[in-house]
Design a protein that fits this description.
This protein has about 240 residues and is of the alpha+beta class. The protein folds into two domains: about 70 residues, no CATH class; about 110 residues, Four Helix Bundle (Hemerythrin (Met), subunit A) (Up-down Bundle). It has five helices and seven strands; from the N terminus they run βββββααααββα. Strands 1, 2, 3, 4 and 5 form a five-stranded antiparallel sheet that branches. Strands 6-7 form a two-stranded antiparallel ribbon. Helix 2 packs across helix 4, helix 3 runs antiparallel to helix 4 and helix 4 crosses helix 5. It is elongated. Bound molecules: zinc ion. The site of zinc ion has 8 residues, from loops. Zinc ion binds next to loops.
């Protein structure tokens, strides 16, 4: 898992508390759906993380006091984990990114665990705002706006392919679709909302961070040339 504070990939040794649903009558070898609360500290930043895990559990035998000695998550069980604390991922944004975009991005990240659909919809809206305000992309539908941006800008294959996926997820978040087989509304998953945020990360880098680094280099070199009495370099 990724630490919600420092975003490092980490392995935590959890302390676990099981929430019994049928404490008295649970046969240790019977499968029981239930929850456990896990807490531990990030080995990198040492901050507290608390998770609620829901799954199917199976026990071993009981000790002399009647408590289960061990319990495991039954293989192939449905599994869900949510952060209880911290409530939201603490995402950081590079200082070169304009504040209004950074604020919307952090909000989309903050609601990811509660509503992936709302998060993906916010990412979609932010993407459109950045393309319109910084690349003069004309207001249209998401597909057209992404095509217009890709046609007039040389971007990495990571960005162009991510945008290709984001247009699918973004449309999906804005216009609920039904599953062909079951007729049920298919929801945006957390991993898809995370992919939308990842695309914004790459776009922030392309649109704001890299140009700022380049400008700083140019200025440094040109200042030196001027100091030496030479003509500063012009853009190629
Ligand atoms: Zn951490």
């Amino acid at each position: 898992m990724k630490c919600p504070y420092c975003e490092t990939a980490i392995n935590i040794t959890w302390t676990t508390h099981f929430i019994y649903e049928h404490d008295e009558c649970w046969d240790p070898y019977e499968i029981e759906s239930g929850q456990e609360v896990r807490h531990g500290k990030c080995p990198e930043c040492n901050k507290l993380i608390i998770l609620l895990v829901s799954s199917n559990f199976i026990g071993t035998d009981r000790d002399e006091f009647g408590s289960l000695r061990e319990r495991y998550i039954k293989e192939d069980s449905p599994y869900n984990e949510v952060f209880i604390f911290p409530k939201f991922s603490i995402k950081t944004v590079a200082p070169e990114v304009p504040e209004k975009y950074g604020r919307d991005y952090k909000e989309a990240a903050a609601i990811l665990a509660i509503s992936p659909k709302a998060s993906a919809a916010m990412s979609r809206r932010l993407l459109q705002t950045i393309l319109r305000e910084n690349y003069g992309v004309k207001k249209g539908n998401l597909n057209k706006e992404i095509d217009e941006f890709l046609d007039s800008n040389k971007v990495s294959s990571f960005i162009s392919e991510s945008l290709h996926y984001l247009r699918f997820i973004g449309n999906f978040a804005a216009h609920p679709s039904k599953c062909k087989n079951t007729g049920e509304i298919v929801e945006v998953e957390a991993s898809e909302a995370e992919c939308s945020l990842g695309t914004l990360d790459a776009l922030f880098d392309f649109a704001f961070v890299q140009p700022a680094i380049l400008e700083a280099w140019k200025k440094k070199i040109n200042d030196k040339l001027i100091e030496l009495g030479k003509k500063p370099l012009s853009d190629s």
